[in-house]
What does this fold into?
Amino acid sequence: MYPMIKIEGVRHAYKTATGPLPVLDGLEVEVKEGGFVAVVGPSGCGKSTLTKLVAGLMKPDTGRVMVHGEVVTGPRATVGMAFQNPVMLEWRTILENIVLPLEIVPNKLTKAEKMERANYLLELVGLAGFGNKRPSELSGGMRQRASLCRALVHKPEVLILDEPFGALDAFTREDLWQTMHKVKAEEPFTGVLITHDLRESIFLADTVVVLSQRPARTQYVLDVPDTGPRTLDDLYTPETAEMLNILRHQIEVAQGRVAA
It folds into this structure.
């Protein structure tokens, strides 16, 4: 049985004026169905390239990317994405922004059913009553919550989160971490999180993959123990401190600052 996501021997380079720029070098990553993997590594190592490959927005030079046992050859309706900058259309209300994927992805939902789905998600992330607001009327954290709703509205099998909380203040970020656990419990998905925050990776994911310096390969894989529902207090345990030390060391190895 295939894992939900399988990145197998993937190599990729970007074309530049001075020649190819290798970004990924034989990358290997697996994500089980219902799993949540966080990907960390040095800046510019190819983390966002990985997400584009999984989403089908680009193809690898060699190797293959598989989702649900099928080789990814183009954009997939079963993948949702949320980014650091929650771009929304100002001329549409929050509700209208959220249902936008349902206007693109084929479905049999009526307009009323689409709005009902969007309102349900808004309530799930703590934005009940804000559906008729414009994006400019919401704070950054609120817009990011709405962006998460938009990524989930068509019930994707895979949710890709590319540094969605990176631009937020610490308190808002931690609040959204807790919201993510609530959302995943109610709206099951297989998750891939790109982040520079090691605490975030441990709090949200069940597996943390450390990428090497560019061109990236899989340098280290950390399994986060399942101890039941997580709270922010879990970030201050000796076990978490040990995991953070391991990840910091691996990042320093990837940066070439210390020996492996």
